[in-house]
Fold this sequence. Notes:
By secondary structure, the chain is an alpha/beta fold. It has helices at residues 2-12, 82-93, 136-144, 159-163, 195-231, and strands at 18-25, 42-49, 61-67, 98-103, 106-110, 114-119, 122-125, 151-154, 167-172, 176-183, 186-187.
Amino acid sequence: ELEAVMQELATRNGITEGLVYLQVTRGAAERDFAFPDHVQPTVFAFARPKKLSDDPNQHGIRVHVVPDIRWQRCDIKSTAMLAQVLAKQAARQAGAFEAMMHEDGLVTEGGSSNLWIVRDGIAYTRPLSRDILAGITRHVCLDVADEAQVSVVQRAFTVEQAINADECFITSATSFVLPVTRIDEHVVGNGAPGPVTLRMRDAYLARAHRSRCHEDRAAAHRRSQGRHHRSDGP
């Protein structure tokens, strides 16, 4: 049902390439700390256009290293994002596109992305735990890694290892797969998007295009079914 609503939202807004943001909360209730009983969840969504390709940042972004000051359940996608807001603002003030958050030197994730590094042709990303959000784009990239002919190891890495990596990239629902070419003042690799990053980006975008074609066919089928039912009516 939610998928149909999101597809309808995209159709009504004339979105051919873009994204749908979906947010679900427990529901409206009196202000209190305990979970309310017998409330209806609140569902909010909006759609906006976004090109799947031709992103000027695809040529490389800079990230800014900041301490991870979040609470101990970072795996929960919550609207309480003050720590991420502060991290993203610090990155912006440093002239960077994204924050690279760390805890005692060990990289957790970006302000609104998952982080990856590449060493000797192998991609590394932190395993799922309470320390990071289980990003949807991260999940898809793990799924398409074989198509991209990329070996992936889920293992934590340090800021120093990221700086000295052959490649580095971020994944998120709004940025897809973007190469990181600078970490603060340090150049990553040769300062250009690396081959593993580019293969992962291409594989992810190919999956997104296939998904869009499938959704277009499904929407056309629903419209056809709707016309069929109306013609049979009184």
